[in-house]
Every structure is written in C-alpha cells, then in structure tokens.
Amino acid sequence: MKYTIHLLTFTYATLFVQSAVQAELINNGSLELFSAGIPDSWTYNNEIFGPTTVESSINSPFGTGVKSARLEDALATNANPRLTQSFSPTSPSGGLSVAFDFFLDDNDISDNTGWFVALVSNFSFKTLAQINRNSELRIPDVANIPISGNKWYRYEAEITVGAFNRFTLDGTLTPFGGQAIAFSGTQGVHAAAYDSLQFGDDTATNSLASPIHFDDVSLSVSAVPEPSSIAIVTFVGVCAGLTRSRAVKRRRK
Asked: Can you tell me whether residue 249 is helix, strand or coil?
C-alpha cells in the first residue's frame, strides 16, 4: 500500500509541473486601444513642446494590428517623452520574458541619439535596451548590435537571475524580413521587485532622438501552475483502480 501512495504522488506532481503557464503583466500590449490619442492602460509623459498624443496608424508587420505608439523627442536635455505601464510589484527571481517591436522613423540615425527600454522600481532602473546609440541597439554589458532607420525590429529576451543576483539575458533581435541576431550575457544586480515597464528618451545623449514607434509589447512571468486535465484524469483513474482492487480483495476474503 505504501508503494501505491508514492506512485500516485509522483504521477500527479509530474503532470502538475508540466501545466505551468506564463502570466502576462502588460495590458494593451498590442497598442491597439487608444483614448484621446493615449494608449489605454499606459501613462504618457510628454515634453513641453512635444506632441501630446502618441497614436500612430503605422503598425508592426510582426503583429496583426493596425496601430502603434510613436514617441517624438522635442528637447535634447529633457527626460521626456516617456511611455510607462505599471503593474503589481513583481520579482524577477522566477524568470521574466520580454518582447517588443520598434521602428526608427528616420533614414539617418548616425548621430548619437537614443531611446531606452527599462524595468523600473522605486529604487532601481534596469535598462533592457538602448535604441540608436550611434546606429546600434545596445544592451548594457551584453551586446551592441547594428541597426538601421526605417526598418521594423523585434526584440525578444528571456531574463533569469544568476550568480550574485545578476541578470542573465538570452534573446534575439530580428529585423523584419531578415535573420535573427542572438545575444547573451549578464548585467548588474537586480532589484527585489519591479513595478513598471518604461519606454523613453535617453537624455544621456543630450541631443534630439529620431522619432520611434513601439508595438506588440509583452512582459510575462512564470505563473503558479494549475492541475492539467490530464493530471486529473490520471489521478482519478489510478484511484478508481485502487478502489476496484480493494473490492476484489474483499470478495476473495
């Protein structure tokens, strides 16, 4: 009987793990829903002399929508514009997946201008990408990848926490119609939790950044798994077998 109980526990636990799913943290990541020019579920901080809306009819060919968000720099030394979505404080220790599309609305991106994509908390600012620093996408401490203007790119990365609480990023940057470029490396110590994803002007350049479109944004974290239907059927099936076995034994007695 002890052997049978251990078998039940092992079968159920194994299938339980297999049913784990990813929990999406971003609402309206497709950037298809707008109210008065601002994407629903997002906060937009504009510059004094910059556009007050970000809605654009140019969409990423990687997705299926018809819109995107366009950020335009108006003051070289101002920290805005910024597009932010907040969520419940989330620890990166269980792993995160991040993805987004971008398009630099300019043929000449050779100047030292740029935008950033970052995970943010009250005490930490973790840069996932600097877009268009001397015609490159830079992932601090990880990779510098050449990029071009007037071309859509998709950034995808898996984030895990490695030794000494350092971020490990493994991902790809894919130009539309081109080959994916892989990157992998580690960044500095991470925060205990992050509560927002932010796209904005990289003011460290002190020069105007080329306008940029963002689309198809996703940030997900591993969720607590739930029993799959296969696990439940297996569990019930084995239990039924045990019940039948006990009934046969009673009749034999």
From this structure: helix
Query: Which residues have a Cβ under 8 Å from the Cβ of 235 and sit 6 or more positions away?
Result: 8, 11, 12
Query: 75 pLDDT band (50/70/90 cuts)?
Result: confident
Residue identified by tokens 């950034």 is 155
Q: Is the peptide bond before 227 cis (omega within 30 degrees of 0)?
A: no
Q: Do 185 and 171 touch, CB atoms closer than 8 A?
A: no
Which of helix, strand or coil describes residue 30?
A: coil
Residue pair 211/102 in contact by the 8 Å Cβ criterion:
no
Q: Look up residue 161 and give its two tokens.
A: 């926490």
Query: Is the four-CA dihedral 169, 72, 193, 97 of positive or negative sign?
Result: negative
Going by pLDDT thresholds of 50, 70 and 90, the confidence category of residue 203 is low
Q: What confidence tier does 113 reach under pLDDT thresholds 50, 70, 90?
A: low
**What's at 47, amino acid-wise?**
E
Q: DSSP secondary structure string, 53-97?
A: --EES---TTSS-S-EEEE----TT----EEEEEEEEE-STT-EE
* Rg, Å, the chain Cα set: 24
CB 6 within 8 A of CB 225: no
Both tokens of residue 238? 């084995």
Using CA atoms, how far apart are residues 109 and 211, in angstroms rounded to an integer?
10
> How do the residues of the chain divide into helix, strand and coil, expressed in percent and rounded to 5?
20, 40, 40
Identify the bridge partners of residue 143 per DSSP, sorted by sequence position: 139
Surface-to-core class of residue 102, CB atoms within 10 Å of its CB (0-12 exposed, 13-18 middle, 19+ buried): buried
Tokens of 7: 């078998």
